[in-house]
Amino acid sequence: MTFGAGMTYQQMLPILEQYYPEFAKLFARTASPQIRNMGTLGGNIDNASPIGDLPPILLALETRIHLRHCSPNDRDVNGEDDSAKDESNEHNKTSYVDELIPLAEFFIDYKKTKLRAGSYIVAIHMPLMQDNQHLFIHKISKRYEDDISACLFAASLVLSADGATIKQAKIGLGGMAATPLLAKHCQQALIGMPVDMASFEKAAKALAKDVSPLTDVRASREYRMHVAQRLLIKCGKQLTAARLAKREPSGAIILAFLTATVFAAYVRLKTKSAPPPSMIVR
Ligand SMILES: Cc1cc2nc3c(=O)[nH]c(=O)nc-3n(C[C@H](O)[C@H](O)[C@H](O)COP(=O)(O)OP(=O)(O)OC[C@H]3O[C@@H](n4cnc5c(N)ncnc54)[C@H](O)[C@@H]3O)c2cc1C
Questions:
Q1: pLDDT at 52 over 50
Q2: Residues of the chain with CATH 3.30.390.50
Q3: Which fold would CATH assign to domain 2-79+92-125?
Q4: Is 256 helix (H, G, I), strand (E, B) or coil?
Q5: Longest Cα separation, the chain
Q6: Domain with CATH 3.30.465.10 in the chain
Q7: Rounded distance between C-alpha atoms, residue 60 and residue 73, angstroms
Q8: Which of 17, 213, 218, 244 is the most exposed place for a label (fewest CB within 10 A)?
C-alpha cells in the first residue's frame, strides 16, 4: 500500500480502517481533529520526533520510505543568476535520484535523518497485512486526546499457520530513546518461540537490552520500561487467549465424540449380554 507523503491523517484514515484497522484506532488518540486534518504522514516522519506516534508503527510494519534527492548544484538556488533559469540549457535542469530504503534506516540520531539539503519524502510503502499477522498498538499518555506519548508501543507478530509459533516479530517503540526504533533483542527473543506466556515474559526482559529510557515530565525511566514490558506481555495474553478460544470448539467436539463412543460401546455391551427376550424371567 503506497501513501503519498502529503496525505493528512484524516485522508489516511479510511484506508487504514480497511487495511490496518488496529492502526486506524490510534488516530482517535493522536493530537486533535484540527491537527489530524492538517498533520501529514511525511511531516510526522521528517519531524523525527522520538515521541511521534506514527514512526514506531510504521517501523513495526516494515515500511519502506521513498526519498528523492535533488541535486542543488544544477540550479542557482538563490535565484541570483538569471542564466540558471534557462531550462533549454541541459546543465540547468534539476536532476534527482530516487531512493527506497527501510524506514529503520531513516532515523539516524535525535532529530537527525537520512534527508539532506534538497531531499524530500515522496511516499511511504506499507506491506499489506498477512493472514497470520497480528498488530498491537498502545499509546500511553496522561490525557486520552491531544497528548504526547510517554510510550508508544507497536508489535507486529506473524504466527505459523496453526497459530502455535511466532514466525516474525517486529516491536516498534516511541518515547523510549532518542529516535523511534525497533527493539531487536526483544524481537530475536520472540522469533521461533511458542505462543505462550513464558515466551513473552522472557522477551519482555530482553527489552532492557534494547532501550534505556529517560525520565522527563511525562514519565520516569522505570515507568517507561515497566509499561513497555507489560504491554508486550499483554500481547502474549491476548494471543494465548485467542488460541484457547479457537481450540475450545474442537475440545467440545472431541468430548462429544468420546461421550458418543463410550455410550455406543455401553449400548453394544448391554445388547450383547442381555438375554434373548424369550429367556427373560419375569
Ligand atoms: C497541538 C499539537 C498536537 C500534536 N499531537 C501529536 C500527537 O499526539 N502525536 C503525533 O504523532 N504528533 C502530534 N503532533 C505533531 C503533528 O502530528 C505533526 O506531525 C506535526 O505538527 C508536523 O506537521 P505537518 O505534517 O504539517 O508537517 P510540517 O509542519 O509541514 O513539517 C514538519 C517538518 O517536516 C518537513 N516535511 C514535511 N513534509 C515533508 C516531506 N514530504 N519530505 C521531507 N520533509 C518534509 C518540513 O520541512 C518540516 O521540517 C501534534 C502537533 C500539534 C501542533
A1: yes
A2: 137-240
A3: 3.30.465
A4: helix
A5: 124
A6: 2-79+92-125
A7: 37
A8: 244
Cα–Cα distance, 276 to 253 (Å, whole number): 36
Ligand 1 lined by 35 (C-beta under 6 Å) = yes
E-only strand ranges, 39-148: 64-70, 96-102, 107-109, 112-113, 119-125, 133-140
Helices (H), the chain: 9-19, 21-26, 33-38, 41-47, 54-60, 184-190, 197-210, 221-273
Tell the residue number behind the cell numbers 534557462, with chain if given: 86
At residue 244, the 3 state secondary structure works out as helix
Instruction: Give 113-168 pLDDT, tens digit per residue.
Output: 999 899 999 999 999 999 999 999 999 998 888 888 999 999 999 999 999 999 99
Give 145's Cβ-side CA count (13 Å radius): 8
Give the CATH architecture of domain 137-240.
2-Layer Sandwich (3.30)
Q: What percent of the chain has pLDDT over 70?
A: 84
Contacts of 245 (CB under 8 A, 6+ apart): none
What is the structure's pLDDT at 269? 76
Determine if ligand 1 sits within 6 Å of the CB of residue 10: no
Closest C-alpha to ligand 1, atom 35:
43
CB-ligand 1 contact for 38 (6 Å cutoff): yes
Kindly give the distance from the C-alpha atom of residue 39 to the centroid of ligand 1, in angstroms, as a whole number.
Answer: 5
**Test site for ligand 1: of 25, 32, 41, 47, most ligand atoms within 8 A of the Cβ:** 47
**What confidence tens digit (pLDDT) does each residue in 186-213 have?**
999 999 999 999 999 999 999 999 999 9
Q: End-to-end CA distance of the chain, in Å?
A: 82
